[in-house]
Design a protein that fits this description.
By secondary structure, this protein is mainly β. The chain has strands at residues 3-4, 8-14, 17-28, 36-45, 60-64, 71-74, 79-90, 107-116.
Length: 131
Amino acid sequence: MAKIGDVDLDIDVRKDRAIIDVKYAITFEEGDKGQRYNELCRLIGDDTDVGDPPEAGDDDPLAFLAPLYFREIRVDKPRTVRRNLHAEIPSVLLDEDFGPIPNPDEFRALVTLVPVAKPVRRESDLVVVRR
């Protein structure tokens, strides 16, 4: 099964634009040969309380990074693929913790690999209906 290495996120805010960089590596093993995966990287606004795991609250997806939505990967041999994704978004999208009390905005990059199942199909015999 493919493994995602450490995910590094860097955000550089420059006035009205935010430059997002995400780096990670995917390691494919012998058992992945011929397997297809959908790869997805999202920028998440973290709205959980201090100490809560990410699963504890309603975190908001703020942006999809390239590949937009997903990219399909087909594995041909065991190897490591390094990703360096770059995106520019309006900095206003980063203002996800608003309210009367100053609160810093917190973000994570979430990388997901979903195996694409090989479809199994079989048809019935042809049935002819006469009217």
